[in-house]
Amino acid sequence: MAEERRAVSSSVRIGLQTVLGVVIVAILAAAVVLFATPLFLVTDTSVEGIRVLTKEQVLQQAQIPMNTRMAELDTHDVAVRIAELPRVKHVRVEKSYPHLVTVEVTERTPLVYCEFEGKMYELDASGVAMHVRRPTRRIPEIVVPQPLHNTLQREAALTTAQHLPKDILTRVRTITVDSAAMVVLRMRSGRTVELGSPTRLDEKVESMRIVLTQPGATWNVSNPELPTRR
């Protein structure tokens, strides 16, 4: 009986060793295919999700070495380089064997724009600036001191823009903030709305909706419960 158990145990060990040997050989063979043969080389790229950026801009920043082995390509390094583009909010880089590298980009959404030292910049809700030749249509310009710096005035302008519903935001030509306590909207129609400080904005928006249906070139809704016309 003991001899039978030893025989079975020996057979199991031999079987496990055989399986382990096969697995090791398979792993080594796969490693040889991936790293030591030209079967899986980077020969194609794809860029998805771009709206303003071009494929050429993304790939130039990505610096993906063509004809390098797929297994040797560090997708994290590629993603880090692409993320340095100001317009890129999120990026994901994936390898699709045998030859394709796919870059998936999520661009920042411009909220407002500004002019600084003769150049145009779009800014997203977090204040990231993106140089442009011409701004996106129907987004307002912010007029503040040092618009590319994180000042109280710029923060007030961005906060205001974020709280304005799209149907009102597209009607605003400029958001002017000389001091953080006085935000002034100049509408595309030529009318002016003085908001005061960027507080109680939801209430001020509702007040705006009412006063803009009334005559008057300038309205002050700093007290949304008591708007005044000038």
From TrEMBL:
<dbReference type="InterPro" id="IPR034746">
    <property type="entry name" value="POTRA"/>
</dbReference>
<dbReference type="Pfam" id="PF08478">
    <property type="entry name" value="POTRA_1"/>
</dbReference>
<keyword id="KW-0132">Cell division</keyword>
<keyword id="KW-0472">Membrane</keyword>
<keyword id="KW-0812">Transmembrane</keyword>
<keyword id="KW-1133">Transmembrane helix</keyword>
<dbReference type="InterPro" id="IPR005548">
    <property type="entry name" value="Cell_div_FtsQ/DivIB_C"/>
</dbReference>
<dbReference type="InterPro" id="IPR050487">
    <property type="entry name" value="FtsQ_DivIB"/>
</dbReference>
<keyword id="KW-0131">Cell cycle</keyword>
<keyword id="KW-1003">Cell membrane</keyword>
<protein>
    <recommendedName>
        <fullName>POTRA domain-containing protein</fullName>
    </recommendedName>
</protein>
<feature type="domain" description="POTRA">
    <location>
        <begin position="40"/>
        <end position="108"/>
    </location>
</feature>
<dbReference type="GO" id="GO:0005886">
    <property type="term" value="C:plasma membrane"/>
</dbReference>
<dbReference type="Pfam" id="PF03799">
    <property type="entry name" value="FtsQ_DivIB_C"/>
</dbReference>
<dbReference type="InterPro" id="IPR013685">
    <property type="entry name" value="POTRA_FtsQ_type"/>
</dbReference>
<dbReference type="GO" id="GO:0051301">
    <property type="term" value="P:cell division"/>
</dbReference>
<feature type="transmembrane region" description="Helical">
    <location>
        <begin position="20"/>
        <end position="41"/>
    </location>
</feature>
